[in-house]
Amino acid sequence: MKRINLNPGINKIVFILATVLMILPLTACAQKVKFLTSTVVPAAQGSVKVKKDSNKNYQIKIHIDNLAEPNRLTPPKSAYVIWLVTDEKVTQNIGKIKTSTNFLSKKLTATFESVTVVKPTKIFITAEVDASVTYPVSEVILETNYF
Questions:
Q1: Between these two residues, 45 and 103, which has the higher pLDDT value?
Q2: What is the side-by-side strand order in the sheet with 108-116?
Q3: In 10 A of CB 90, how many CB atoms?
Q4: Which terminus of the chain faces fewer neighbouring Cβ atoms within 10 Å, N or C?
């Protein structure tokens, strides 16, 4: 069998292209969106990761740093509530976010994970007196652009 030697530059291009084509399907399913800067809690920053699973549900993972405790807001609130907006512009309460400090740090972090059957087009967070509200009452603390 005769071996064909290609130009080393072509070999490198073929290798890079093959690598990209193998990695692309792994990342194409998940979408990571950053929250816009908040006017209420300007130090807060975070992101939302939305991934469609094998059951055609949407996994939502949220991570936020430097989110002040809701009782420190003016006026004080009792909980941060996560809302999603659907394609039909329907707003749904999908849960309460948990805030905490790390073991060796005083840095406030907040995390949230949920699964939903509807595709979210936007995620936003409000600070509410009651976490079980069915529509947002307070001003928006953090929000994403539409995705």
A1: 45
A2: 30-34, 45-52, 58-65, 108-116, 91-101, 79-85, 122-128, 140-143
A3: 9
A4: N
What would the two tokens of residue 44 be?
Answer: 């807060």
Q: What is the pTM (predicted TM-score) of this model? A: 0.78
CA distance 98 to 5: 58
Nearest-10 Cα torsion for 144, 108, 115, 73? -60
Q: How far is CA 89 from CA 1, 13, 45, 120, in A?
A: 63, 44, 25, 10
Encode pLDDT of 46-104 as tens digits: 999 999 998 999 999 999 999 988 999 999 999 999 999 999 999 999 999 988 766 66
Which is it for strands 122-128 and 79-85: parallel, antiparallel or unpaired?
antiparallel
Strands (E), the chain: 30-34, 45-52, 58-65, 79-85, 91-101, 108-116, 122-128, 140-143
CA distance 46 to 37: 9
Instruction: Confirm if 129 and 77 have CB atoms less than 8 A apart.
Output: yes
What's the pLDDT at 13?
81
pLDDT band (50, 70, 90) for residue 9: confident
